[in-house]
Amino acid sequence: MAKPDKNVRRATVNALRAWSKGHVYADSLIERHAERNHLSAQDRAFFQAIFLAVLRNRSLLDHWIGRFRKGKLDPEVRDILRVGFCQLLILQIPDHAAINETVECARKPVRGLINAVLRKAATVRMKLLREMGELDPVTLYSHPAWLFKRWKKAYGKENAIALMDWNNQPAETFYRPNLLNPPPEGAPEPDHAHEAISSGHYYITDPSTAHAPALLAPKPGETILDACAAPGGKAVHLAGLMENKGRLVCTDSNEKRLPRLEENITRCGVEIAEVKVHDWLQPAPPEWHNHFDAILLDVPCSNTGVLRRRVDARWRMQPVDITNLVALQRQILENAIPCLKPGGRIVYSTCSIDQEENADLVREIALAHPHLIMTESQQILPFTHATDGAFAALLLDQRNK
């Protein structure tokens, strides 16, 4: 039996407290706290909606809280107020439920304070909503100031604001037909993710993820390396383009991610894949040198193109992280390049919209390796393409030309 509704709010507060300690990502916390509180499917959906909306609108919620409560607040009290304000002003939950149930999930000594603040806010709800247009973009769209400044410099203020607005919208679910096990002709798109996954007819992934495999253009019979393969979406697409003919080596640096990778490619009917552990910050095994016709490097990145889906990443990121990631990405590229056959090709890809991680790095690599020529690149931008952001560049080996 599902626990009382107030436990949805309590679960949300507990998840926010755990998230603030910085050790666990939002998606994992949703799973953990939904199971821990035995939430029904309906309550789980409500819990997830509040939790993600609080993370998306953190600065805006704190601005509203500051209108009614000045000075320092106990961190748990602040999270409870965030949950309350989120329901009142973002999710438009009726006052009695948003206030009463939120107050009930708090410790008794602070219930009076929380009740008073939320009731005051409810009386001027429309005024607070009308004033949103007067707020600065960083507060209104709840992004770190440094990130807005960076995007404004790269894309202009209007596009930077459009990007932040995009990041604050709930992400759509896209079902990509599995080329190896396509859905029956005329079959409707599945209603639920579980149905799509279990059937093996679809893979759930944003349209932006198809660009890099398409740019690599693997052919049946080739030997292909998917160097950073987990959880397997691009590997499934590569195998489909190869018509399940040839050899597809899928590696990941984290052995714990391999079971999910293997499960996904098996469920989708991939028969040509070999799954191996390898950290590409280290040199490749000698037997892989001059071995692959084509290599897909979907490298770890800042995630700046997918902040709509990775809701909490904006708060964890710092400018120095991008600098550090570029060094890591360069090392992965340097270690993968010797594995390419003469005349082969590499596609370097990220889910970043940051030029340092993308075009700038590829340009530097091409200068350092004259036998590699960048022939094509694609920068996908949410405010232009209405999909997640992504980058892909094709490097051709000219040694046998």
Could you explain the architecture of this structure?
- The protein has about 400 residues and is an alpha/beta fold.
- It has 2 domains: about 5-135, N-utilizing Substance Protein B Homolog, Chain A; about 175-395, Rossmann fold.
- About 50% of the residues lie in helices and about 15% in strands.
- It contains 19 helices and 9 strands.
- It has helices at about 5-20, 25-35, 40-55, 60-70, 75-90, 95-105, 110-125, 125-130, 135-140, 145-155, 155-165, 195-200, 210-215, 235-240, 260-265, 315, 320-335, 360-370, 380-385; strands spanning about 175, 200-205, 225, 245-250, 275, 290-300, 340-350, 370-380, 390-395.
- The strands form 2 sheets. The protein has a 7-stranded mixed beta sheet, with helices on both faces. The chain has a two-stranded antiparallel sheet with strand order 1-2.
- Strand 4, helix 15 and strand 5 (about 275) form a beta-alpha-beta unit.
- Helix 1 (about 5-20) runs antiparallel to helix 2, helix 4 packs across helix 5 and helix 5 (about 75-90) runs parallel beside helix 7.
- It is elongated and about 75 Å long.
- The protein starts with 5 loop residues before the first helix and ends with a strand.
- The mean pLDDT is about 95.
Summarize this, please?
With 401 residues, the chain is of the alpha/beta class. 49% of the residues lie in helices and 14% in strands. The protein has two domains: 6-135, N-utilizing Substance Protein B Homolog, Chain A, CATH 1.10.940.10; 175-397, Vaccinia Virus protein VP39 (Rossmann fold), CATH 3.40.50.
